[in-house]
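REVIEWER CHECKLIST
Item 1: Sequence provided? yes
Item 2: Single chain? yes
Item 3: Sequence as submitted:
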Amino acid sequence: MIINLNRKYSRPKRNGRKILVRLLVFLIFLGLVLGVPINMAYSGVKEAQLHGKALASAYQNQNFGQIQVETSSIKNAALKIDSSINFLFWLRFIPIIGGYYSDVKGITSGGLEELKAVEVILADLKPKEEKLGFLGKPIPSQDRVSQLINVLDQTIPLLDKVEDNLKKAKEDVKDVNGEKWPENLLGFPARSTISVLRNFITGVYLAATDNIDVLALAPSTLGQAQPKTYLLLFQNDKEIRPTGGFITAYAFLKVDKGQITTTVSDDIYRLDERLLGTCESKICPLKPPSPIVRYLPEVSGQPRQAWSMRDSNLSPDLPSSAKEFERMYEYLGQGLPFDGIIYIDSQVVEELIDVTGEIDVFGTPYSSKVDHRCNCPNVIYELENYAEIAAKGTQDRKAILGVLMSQILAKLVGTETEKIPQAIETIVRLANHKHIMFYMHDQKTQSALAKLNWIGEIQDFDGDFLHINDSNFAGGKSNLYVEQTVTQEIKFDKGKVTKKINIEYKNPQGFGVWLNGINRDYVRFYVPIGSKLISGRGSEDGVRQIGDELGKSVFEAFITVRPQNSRKLEIEYEILYSPKDEYKLKIQKQPGAKDFQYKVKLNGSQRKDFKLDRDREFKFDI
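Item 4: Structure as written out by the authors:
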């Protein structure tokens, strides 16, 4: 048998060539469908960065015409990025990758729409550039806020013209989820950047539509027509109290045409010392409420004989607590020399310093870097250290709050242009999550802020309602470490609703850990009015139904949570609520509290498992 060797080996050679050709064609195709759009997008990003810096320079030099040019250039760069991403549409159908593609596409499309809106507004403002102070030369940073207020005042009437752009931008980003992104992606802060951009784009639409009345009031609130004075109260959320934390310090802020200065600043103990001195010579009705008498003794261990300003925020309804604070303040004989009260906690200071960078107060640095002395952000260590010094009553203690906030605000005003969206998003998010709250004397302003849910009030609700309120009474700064998990078990049968609330408190840290101690927690449950307590377990002083207030029925308990320990508190009650096709539930977060884990079960089936970072409303099919 004769074998043709040439024929035998020629076919693999031809097959190999076919494979190489096909591979080459595939690589060329891949380069076209993937490489070209990515390169085009990268080029657009670089152009946007270049013109972004030029825009910052144009604003610095107050050149309105150049601001318009650079804004249009950034819009064109965004269009280039968005168009290139459109070529990668097929990535949307790939599992996992498709979700990330959709987020990027949503952000670029939404950003493009908002840049179109800015372009329209700038064109309408161009004839007024001199009136708005754009004279082609730099202005002091403290004058920028006043200028921005003027710009805002002139922009509000123009927002109707760009509402469609802003609405489309909001729709583009509505499904973007920054939480699924890694914190760090090849050196890029992916999660925070995606979240900030998504929240900023959404926030602009809401500000220009649903909340335009708040925007309209901003100029007067910021002292455009006449100076305003606000009392700033710092609540220490590491020692949680009903409205967000133990009131530690105060400062008076004067706002004149957007420029903010601090007039008086001190710790709350100095204010209480003045109140005590005043009430020695006149009658002051300062009888402490029952919970303070029972659970917040004097240092000597004796029951308290008087109510003080630092403990005045006993009501979980911030307007009610603010009125109580003002009632006590008026005993000082000065009336109320301020136009409202602004409440902040340590989270506010920490996150704003993360935007501005390190602040120096009396030679002490305050930064967001981790401090090895507490394994927490340095600013938290310094604030808690200050709180300890203030509590000891040392005569030469310094009043840091006014200086600290003045420097933070000054840095925010002078921040780089590219950081402005981050600064705005941070402040709005802190207010949405109840770390910044307002009590304004002007009812129009207060009503507008109430629409934003920025006034810390206990709200009415047509359905099931729950607000759990913790008060750390003489338990040190243990809320640094205490965690909670809350489980609601709802049973609905034949028109009757019963609920069981189970709270697990944990303090995983030891006694020797910085500022840790026994957490003495006065707990209240605010539930729909007419609810009846069935049973309670885990309270050291029993679980009691104490009546109705703020349009709710109230149950109370008291527990202690020791370091490296846990406790469970459980209540069961019946609700006067007869849902039909759906079960409506509202959960109000306590101001200043951590984002604790909540679980909701309905007739044995788990319906929700989430972190309570803000007030939440749910509708469950039944």
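Item 5: Key structural point noted by reviewer: The chain has a mean pLDDT of 90.
Item 6: Recommendation: ____
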